[in-house]
Write a structure and sequence with these properties.
The chain has 143 residues and is mainly β. The protein has one helix at residues 2-22; strands spanning 27-32, 39-47, 53-60, 83-90, 96-103, 108-118, 123-130, 133-141. The chain has an 8-stranded antiparallel beta barrel. The longest helix has 21 residues, at 2-22. The protein is globular, with a radius of gyration of 17 Å.
Length: 143
């Protein structure tokens, strides 16, 4: 019966872990082209050293290998490894926001207004704003 208790405890622990993973944006996400819906990258959301969330491209699915159209510090840099979201802070309502973002495919920097889980944790909605104009991109869980 001790073995049964251990197995049961392990099963409960793994369920708890799976549930908590779905409540956090940490993990790998497939980013899609706004216009065509084609996969562009696999982007990993991770916890930065300062406790905020950030995201970087870990796999390139449909962009050029290097960003020749990017400006400033991103010009000519490899797409893989590029940080696309940073300084996201947790909000009381279970979303994240108040950070910054960069979209290499359009060479645009933006304010990351909100990042929130949708569809039971299978999708991530990122709302980015430039001055008063905001757009929401949806990423799909990839791990």
């Amino acid at each position: 019966t001790d073995m049964r208790k251990i197995i049961l405890a392990a099963a409960i622990a793994s369920l708890a872990f799976a549930a908590s993973a779905q409540n956090s944006p940490i993990g790998k996400w497939k980013t899609l082209d706004d216009k065509t819906g084609k996969p562009m990258t696999i982007t990993e959301v991770y916890e930065a050293k300062n406790g905020t969330l950030a995201a970087k491209i870990v796999e390139n699915l449909g962009l050029p290998a290097t960003c020749s159209d990017c400006s400033g510090p991103h010009k000519g840099k490899p797409i893989v490894g590029m940080v696309t979201l940073w300084n996201l802070k947790a909000n009381k309502d279970g979303t994240w926001g108040g950070g910054n973002g960069y979209k290499p495919s359009e060479d645009t920097s933006f304010k990351a207004k909100t990042v929130k889980l949708a569809d039971g944790g299978n999708k991530l909605e990122i709302t980015g704003c430039k001055s008063i104009f905001c757009r929401t991109a949806t990423w799909v869980r990839a791990d």
